[in-house]
Amino acid sequence: MSTYSSILNNTTQTQPIFGRTDMVKNNAGGYVFKVSNMEQFERFLLLGTIGGTYYVSEQKLTQDNCKVIVDLIKSDGLKVLSILKEYAKAKRILKYDTALFTLALFCTFGNEETKKQSYKAIKDICITGTHILTFVSEVNNMRGWSAGLRKGVAAWYNLNSNLAYQITKYQNRAGFTHRDVLRLSHAKAIDNVQNSIFKFVTKGSVDESTPELIKTFIRAKNAESISDTVTLIENGSLTWEMIKTEYLNDSSVLTALLPNMPYVALLRNLNRFGREHVPMVVSKIKDIDSLKKSGIHPFTTLNALRVYSKGHGDRSDKTWEVHQKISDALNEAVYSSMINNVESTGQSVLFAVDTSGSMSASVSNGTISCREAAALMSAISYKTEPNSELIWFDTQGYKPNFGARTSFEDIAAKTPAGGGTDCSIPFNYALTNKIKYDAFVIYTDNETWAGNKHALTYLNEYRKKINPDVKVIEVAMASNPHTQLPRDDKNILRIVGFDGSINNVINNFLKGSLT
């Protein structure tokens, strides 16, 4: 027979738990908890809002996040700026344009001191020529030009030790050229070499002080034959963007360019390389030192694997021959970029991946869904922990079937997709089967709604009956402001991101070295 307390405990997820006044309705109609403004800022910064989510348009999601960010900038600008600088330096941000847009917000809505420090941060956050042009486009849409902003942008040019490379490799972006930016910023050269670079950018002229790279760049743009172009590439270390477009499909030009191509540029142009280039392409992709030095985000590698393996473009009619050795090398690179000297904790952990319909939304409008990204992250952690178990769930649980050598593409293909969302499943599974875990790690977008009980209800029951000290790590896969569990529990950690540091954070929290 039911008791009144059991009736209250059986609250469905479409209603708040009795007595909890801190619950809010999520986008799917379920009741959850709201994350702090700082956590929401981190979700926006690391995941972005481009493409929106399954339930929310990118416009509304962006507006909601920006309101929170602007409030933080106005209330605690310097602290939030330090987080932006930290994540940018660590290369944790999924789409770097998010960092540049956020920096523009700081330069627009910060108080006097916040703006001052934001202007100084321009040279550090804007790493490449593309970055400075994108940032200028964003800030120019938000505000006018002040002396402080001009000084901060000019410093990027004045203090850049590789300026000739930056202005020839990254020539325009977002409707701006370096000529536009030099004029807007009123930048003044600090020596003869820099003065010659500025003259080239603004007037197209060269003199005896002009760096040799720029002179070679000009010769390449005027080259009248493929053989001359190849010679210039080999002798001048030219890159993809410095060559005439009509020569970029020639095999000999591609062969000459390969040694000079940065890691990211190579991944973006894999479709161009034919069978004769496969050994060199595979060698460059497998170069772990180059992979780490590039600071490439795992999502970029994963996206390259997905696009290349299809053999055709999603938004064009381009097709290409897929070489299995390149696909295999990309798979290795994905795992290498996600693993950062993580050692097993030896603990018993249940890794649980939300595979419901809402997790089919793409990550930052790319080719990878939240579900697929979560499947990869959980698989890597699962393989690291020998005493762990992995389940997938929507409104019920599923046991995956793959081995230590299963490729990401195979894991993604085997992962179920669709159904409602019930984030209580992992806790109910452990409770029903009376399994003592040291921790739960749950990957979800927090759009839970379908359960007959809340995740917190099952967790409290599990702690009472099986393990009172069990830890929970919730990995957010979308930049909404929701979480399935309350914020005031020291044994619950919410994290966000899709990069190699996530596994270290999980590892450290399980070992008790992160609080």
Unreliable stretches, pLDDT < 50, 5 or more residues? none
Classify the fold: give the CATH topology of the largest domain. Rossmann fold
> Briefly, what CATH class of the largest domain?
Alpha Beta
Alpha-carbon Rg, integer: 26 Å
Give the tally of structural domains. Answer: 3
Structural class: alpha/beta
Mean pLDDT: 91
Percent of residues in β-strands? 5-15%
Shape label? globular
CATH superfamily of the largest domain: von Willebrand factor, type A domain
Strand order of the largest sheet: 7-6-5-8-9-11
Question: Main sheet, how many strands, which sense, barrel?
Answer: 6 strands, mixed
Helix content: 40-55%
Any idea what the CATH architecture of the largest domain is?
3-Layer(aba) Sandwich
Total helix count? 23
Cα separation of the termini = 42 Å
Verbal overview:
By secondary structure, the protein is an alpha/beta fold. The chain has 3 domains: 49-93 and 95-210; 211-260, no CATH class; 341-511, von Willebrand factor, type A domain (Rossmann fold), CATH 3.40.50.410. 50% of the residues lie in helices and 8% in strands. Helix 12 (226-236) packs parallel to helix 13. The longest helix is centred in the N-terminal third of the chain and has 32 residues, at 58-89. The two termini are 42 Å apart.
